[in-house]
Amino acid sequence: MLVLTRKKEQSIIIGDDIEITVVDVQGEQVRLGINAPKNVSIYRKEIYLEIQKENRAAAEVKAVSLGEIFKRKE
Amino acid sequence: MLLNTKHFGNIEIDEKNVISFSEGMPGFEEVKKFILLGGTEENYPFQWLQAVDDAELAFVVVDPKVFKPDYIIDVEDGEVETLNIGNTENIVVLSIVVIPDDITRITANLKAPILINTENNKGKQVILNNSEYNIKHYIIEELHRIGGRK
What we know:
By secondary structure, chain A is of the alpha+beta class. Chain A has 1 helix and 4 strands. The interface between A and B is large, with 31 and 43 residues.
């Protein structure tokens, strides 16, 4: 992994259209500002991993009868 | 075209109903084509989102407005672009459902809804970065409250 040291308000450029700026540093927390094309998806990694895990769990659903889950009152 | 499906065997589908997910979905990034099946009265409010190229891959999905009428999502610019959203009225919002062995613990993922633009059949699972909605939202109580019984 490439490791760069940056100070508050300094940036890095990735490719020719992604810019990540250190907006603020408070103790262990770093606030990042990201400029990227609209079609680039940006996620907090732990959330993305959670969604992956949840999707995989959803794909494990067995041959349930969907009609059994919810029946409208007559 | 003939499609092999997880729950309906081989069925005939109309190719124009295939939904294109250009980015796949988290965990299934390589799966780009799905189709909605089983949206019948009997299955209400659930449907299957079946992968077109993988018979074994199918998700249960639900319209979250059925149990959470005040569900609101903020569609970001990136999604508007990816899905070529012209009119938001043409967007179908679905939540992926996990059904554990104990069916009363059924959950819907409100944090990462699927958006489908019915104008062009483009779909994307979006992650709501700035929302309080849960990945595991328990729905059985809410389903009962709106007038169902188990």
